[in-house]
């Protein structure tokens, strides 16, 4: 089946640093989504991407839908302690139903004040 | 507006017992989804309801899992009999019929011992 390779698995950074994480796949996706999960909470949508090449920002977050439609990255600029959590990429494949999202394994972000 | 609510938040049961998880979607959301994340793995899609109908149940692991959404409102996911490998967090999510934003609940954490 379709799989997403998300990296890095975890990151330990200093407050104020920029962060970059990405997801790649051998399959084409027609939607890329980035979620964040805080401890004890469910995933919350950060950014949704629908077109190849699309670059979208949400505050300090920027994400791009790769031209090949097989990858996406998420950047966080000037990290702050509340950025701590697990970040998941998710894709919706060609012909996939609306809710049949394929998730990466997550990137656990730790921010040191 | 209330978000997606799930009950119970945590459950510990013995192997062979039955557990029923409940999900109340956001009011007015026709689409309801179940996902789960077992330890160390990615979040995986289980199934998708549109109102009371199963739109896509391709992710259901086996016939020990039964999902229902009678009346098209809340949904239940029953695991019977539970096995050790069923341990993990079960997320419910919902969305409007034509929207792409899927809102997740906080998850039901299941431990089978």
Briefly, what is this?
The complex is a heterodimer of chains A (113) and B (113). Chain A is 0% helix and 54% strand. Chain A is mostly beta strands.
Secondary-structure element order of chain B, N to C: EEEEEEEEEEE
| Tally of individual helices of chain A | 0
Strand content of chain B: over 45%
Helix/strand structural class of chain A: mainly beta
Give helix % range of chain A: under 10%
Largest interface: A-B, 23 and 26 residues
Main sheet of chain A?
6 strands, mixed
Q: What is the overall pLDDT average of chain B?
A: 93
What is the beta-strand fraction of chain A?
over 45%
Percentage of helical residues of chain B? under 10%
Q: Count helical runs of chain B.
A: 0
Oligomer: heterodimer
Secondary structure topology:
The complex is a heterodimer of chains A (113) and B (113).
Chain A: E1 5-7, E2 10-14, E3 19-24, E4 29-37, E5 44-49, E6 55-58, E7 61-65, E8 71-76, E9 85-93, E10 102-103, E11 107-112
Parallel strand pairs in A: 2-11
Antiparallel strand pairs in A: 1-3, 3-8, 4-5, 4-9, 6-7, 7-8, 9-10, 9-11
Chain B: E1 5-7, E2 10-13, E3 19-24, E4 31-37, E5 44-50, E6 53-56, E7 65-68, E8 75-79, E9 88-95, E10 103-104, E11 108-112
Parallel strand pairs in B: 2-11
Antiparallel strand pairs in B: 1-3, 3-8, 4-5, 4-9, 5-6, 7-8, 9-10, 9-11
Structure write-up:
The complex is a heterodimer of chains A (113) and B (113). Chain A is mainly beta. Chain A contains no helices and 11 strands. The N and C termini of chain A lie far apart (40 Å). By secondary structure, chain B is an all-beta fold. Chain B contains no helices and 11 strands. Classes of the chains: A mainly beta (113), B mainly beta (113).
